[in-house]
Design a protein that fits this description.
- The chain is mostly helical.
- The chain has a domain at 1-65: 434 Repressor (Amino-terminal Domain), CATH 1.10.260.40.
- It has helices at 3-14, 19-26, 30-38, 45-55, 59-64, 67-71, 108-179, and strands at 79-81, 87-91, 94-95, 98-99, 103-105.
Length: 180
């Protein structure tokens, strides 16, 4: 099974979503989704982007990182048994592409809550950046339109002056010829 297949299966199960529900949420046929999860096929880039956006996980992370290990710190010591017999763990490893600090976790859902909070913050930040970029692009498009209009006006002025200069040059030639 590929990392991609393992990761989307994990992410879907983590959110308690059925394969049928994934079809409705992402407009991907159930059989196609099943083939992705079984590692039989890989998605086209458009589907990969939809999947990445849906789960709030970078494309490179879905394709290249074992998300189960990253999310719950399996790269390092996963559980410690305290003197009182309680199980605690640490969330560590790469979270959102950065080295995370070791956060104490007393139940697995706390680690997931932390990760989900960071993912939501990243998603909100990315959405704001996208909105900002779209605003900049629209402003640039408007500026380009204004420059085109100004250029057209300047060309018309230039034609008008050229016609006036040609007329004056013709008059000068006539005066010079009449003086001879």
């Amino acid at each position: 099974m590929t990392l991609f297949a393992k990761n989307i299966h994990y992410l879907r199960k983590l959110r308690n979503i059925t394969q049928d529900k994934m079809q409705a949420l992402l407009t991907i046929e159930r059989s196609t989704w099943s083939n992705y999860e079984n590692g039989q096929t890989e998605p086209k880039i458009e589907a990969l982007i939809r999947i990445s956006n849906f789960f709030n996980v970078d494309i490179d992370a879905i394709l290249l990182t074992d998300l189960q290990e990253v999310r719950f710190g399996q790269h390092e010591e996963r559980q410690e048994i305290s003197q009182k017999g309680k199980v605690s763990g640490k969330v560590s490893g790469k979270v959102l592409g950065q080295k995370a600090k070791n956060y104490p976790v007393h139940i697995p859902s706390a680690g997931q809550t932390l990760y989900d909070g960071l993912s939501a913050a990243k998603s909100g930040y990315n959405q704001q950046l996208n909105a900002d970029y779209l605003g900049i692009i629209n402003t640039l498009k408007d500026s380009i339109d204004l420059i085109k209009q100004a250029n057209a006006a300047l060309l018309e002025i230039n034609r008008s002056y050229r016609a006036r200069i040609d007329s004056l040059e013709a008059q000068i030639k006539e005066l010079q010829q009449s003086r001879r």
